[in-house]
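Below is one protein, fold included:
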Amino acid sequence: MKHKWLLLLLLPVHVMAGELELKTSIKDVTVFQTGAQVTRNGITSVPAGESEIHLKDIPPGLKRESIQVRSNAEITLLSVSFETITNDVEPDREKNKLLEKKKEEYEIRLEDMLARFSILQAEEQIISNLQQVSTTSTGVNVDQIVKAQEIMRTKMNLIITEQLTLKRKIKDQQESLREVSQQISVLNGTKQTLSNDIVIRVSAKQETRADFSVSYIMPNARWIPAYDIRVKNVGEPMQIEYKAQVQQHTGEDWSKVKLKLSTGDPSLGSKKPSIVPWYINLNQPYQQPQQQSNFYKYTDAKFTKVSGRVFDAENGEALFAASVIATGTNIGVSTDFDGKFSLTLPENASSLTVKYIGYNDQVIALTASEFNIYLKPSVVELAEVVVMQESARGRDNHSAQSISYNSVGSKSSGATVSREDIRTTAVRGSRSAASMPQVQPQLNIVSTEFVITESYSIPSGQKPVSVTIQTVQTPAHYQYYCAPRLDKDVFLTAQIVDWEQYNFLEGNANVFFEGTFVGNTLMETKYLSDTLNISLGRDKSVKVERKKSKEYTKRQIMGGDQFTYRHWDFTVRNGKSQKINIILEDQFPLAANSSIEIRREEKSGGDLNEETGIVTWKFDLDPQKNKELKLRYSVKHPKGTFVGLD
């Protein structure tokens, strides 16, 4: 007998050692424009032989092909899979015992109530019989009968009232008994729980303590750029607070995690477009070729601002925190609790892309200024799992059969993509350097990453969390602009040079001027230019007045011709305490008919564009000073006709 046991002990160790549970926590998250890469870390003891290691209760929506497992321990990673595991749950005997006792109490109370109700019914019958006694019977005292009937009526009222009360109690008791019976039935039935597990099969020559890093892509997350622009006055630099609105509905909370914000988007395909032969036929209308790439063709925008609501297409409920984005840009907003949104559009926007986690994206053509948008729930597709293995010699030394995925989801050979640090300017705004969030921009071959050194907690399914990327203070050239023929308000603009160093993306911006919120603007950074132009809104302290001179605004007839005269006087006043630079534009009309002749008589030194007739005055104006300008012209046209002049 001894020898038999000895033989068993000498069997090979390549036997499945059993199922282990790996406890992990989320430490790092890289959030893309759409989606996020979540990295979990954990340590467990791995016995000799082959083992199955389970990461339990992983959200089911992850991209299965994106799963990567790393370990620098002396183990071999055999396979990785994503499995939905069904577990039977034993009934809770103690809870069942308590429910059975409660059921028995309910049954006893119900029996007592029913017995009491039967007694009341009998009493009601007896009193009804007594009331049938005739008051005309011989030898019966009428007064006694009347008194007896009064007593019986009072008693009957009490019986009926108690019956009604008892009926309600019986109904409530029956409902309580039904509920506890259902609870007992459910508790005694076979119960199962579902667990979505990442299952890692490993092999170890000897028992070892192994660290694991498991990462995967969750599609239900995103970040949108946003800005706060602050200008104290036109004599000081501009402060720009670059922020990200981060939101996730992954099903797992991110608690005090290290964040990276990437401009990459793993949801976009990496296949380049390819042109195919274009055949035409007689009487065949033109057909727009199908979009095969991630590039967008822009057309002129018909609207500068759109608004609307976003709903669930199945139940009609408003969707809170859905993203509404100008297609092909980073300019967008999130819906409020009523599903409402309002978005200022960038130049040449032609459509909106509406996204909500768990729903299919929808692209809406800009055919109106107001929309009701209905999104349909999406179906999660299954995919294969890819394994990445690392040897104990280093994280860059992968096994030959392993496959890695880079940050934008394109397959690579397993080589690490090198990143180059970008020089950024350290800036101090209204806060001290110590209190300012630190960011380390990094550049890889496909995207830019912002490494946020502060830890953030971002719960799943909540409203967006504002994450500060960086605060920069940069010199800006401030310039005022007014076209009083169109709008008498004066607009402040700012020009920033060398803005590329800050890695700004397109986005909405809140503008604060001289300590007051003045409105929203757009950071339009998609155009490659040396200077970034930002509109800061209207400044009421600089005024422009445009009025007709009565002496020169008239009509005359000479022979067969008629002359119409216009004389415009402009007054520009700088009510600020700093010198300003301002551009003022107006225009001479242009003749659309050879019988019309326009004479340009006065423009106060303004620059004239001969082709457009636009006159531009550009000048500096000292504080609390005025400047007078004139624009004078006449129009000659045939007698009996008229020309429309303002």
In short: The mean pLDDT is 77. The radius of gyration is 40 Å.
